[in-house]
Specification:
The chain is an alpha/beta fold. It has 6 helices and 16 strands. The chain has a domain of 97 residues: Beta Barrel (Elongation Factor Tu (Ef-tu), domain 3). It has a 7-stranded antiparallel sheet with strand order 4-3-7-1-2-6-5. The protein has a 7-stranded mixed sheet with strand order 11-10-9-8-12-13-16, with helices on both faces. The structure holds flavin-adenine dinucleotide (FAD) and FE2/S2 (inorganic) cluster.
Length: 284
């Protein structure tokens, strides 16, 4: 039975910086000990709206990068796409404001023990957790190719310093306003073949992850997907974040992406059953 990440703590996190990057806000928070236990793929759940707010549900955000050194002590970096009440409230916090943050939550990306040729694929703000991952893989001697896609140029989060930690960076946009015209999945076969990729790491919308899994199946590649299903509690209590997942015993169970994920083995997710309970599911 899965449980909440045992390293999770609740902190008053101080905003150290808040910078606009294209359509996003790159925010840095002082979190002390949380930074040391955060791994690429983990996320945090933040209380939004202030003490008297009616926004009772915490909002989940992937940890972009964590650092346990420096003058602020431990820090985590987040990339916020302001669109609803909670994310807009968070993006409008000023330096020295504090927020109530729980983390690190969820599973993290598996890091190979030997150097491998890794392909990292992000859609929209799904690129956030891939930069910390790229740095770790590079430090382990891996070749790291990255492809980032979005609907238009302004929605691609690809900061300059992020480009330094990858061997190649490919951009795609649905409207052709930057990089290749099309979807990330259109670019993958050529990149996999040219770079002889051995493993895919991905984060983005469910439809994108599903199309990546079809390509991973074709090329017989391992695919670790960060499944960012809508979450209400973020700690395994409410069951709003479930997806059908085939376990090692072959049985399909509705599994909570907040504690069994967000990082899951893409081959185990029953992608075409999103929003439904497949007939073969245990207990259905
Ligand atoms: C693991 C994870 C990582 C994420 N990382 C990032 C990131 O790095 N950057 C980023 O900008 N966003 C990220 N998101 C998305 C972000 O959490 C949502 O966009 C969030 O809802 C924004 O809140 P809001 O108030 O602005 O939007 P709103 O859409 O107004 O908030 C809606 C609220 O309702 C909840 N909700 C919506 N649909 C459902 C549902 N079907 N079941 C239960 N509850 C629901 C949401 O969780 C949220 O609490 C991530 C989400 C997850 C799950
Ligand atoms: S968000 Fe509540 S169980 Fe996953």
């Amino acid at each position: 039975m899965s449980a909440i990440n045992p390293r999770a703590v609740q902190v008053k996190a101080e905003v150290i910086s808040n910078k606009r990057v294209g359509s996003y806000h790159h925010m840095v928070f002082a979190v002390e000990g949380m930074a040391q236990s955060a791994r690429p793929g983990n996320f945090v759940a933040i209380s939004v709206g202030g003490e008297s707010s009616s926004l009772v549900l915490r909002r989940a955000f992937a940890i972009c990068r964590s650092t346990d050194k420096g003058s602020a002590g431990g820090v985590v970096e987040l990339v916020i796409a302001p669109h609803g009440q909670g994310s807009m409230w968070l993006a409008s916090r000023n330096v020295h404001d504090t927020v109530d943050m729980v983390g690190p939550l969820g599973t993290s990306f598996g890091i190979p023990t030997e150097p491998v040729r890794a392909l990292l694929v992000g859609g929209g703000y799904g690129s956030a957790p891939l930069f910390g991952l790229a740095e770790l893989l590079k430090a382990r001697g891996c070749r790291v190719d990255m492809v980032l896609g979005a609907s238009s140029a302004a929605k691609i989060y690809a900061p300059l310093e992020g480009k330094r930690s990858v061997s190649s960076m490919t951009l795609t946009t649905d409207d052709g306003s930057a990089g290749l015209h099309g979807r990330v999945s259109d670019a993958l076969p050529q990149l996999i073949e040219a770079n002889e990729s051995e493993i895919i790491y991905s984060c983005g919308p469910m439809a994108m992850l599903q199309s990546i899994q079809a390509i991973a199946d074709k090329y017989q590649l391992i695919h670790q997907a960060s499944v960012e299903e809508s979450m209400a509690c973020g700690i395994g209590v409410c069951m709003t974040c479930v997806v059908p997942l085939r376990g090692a015993d072959g049985i399909v169970r509705m599994s909570r992406t907040c504690i069994d994920g967000p990082v899951m083995d893409g081959a185990d997710v029953i992608w075409d059953s999103k929003g439904k309970i497949p007939a073969e599911t245990w207990g259905a």
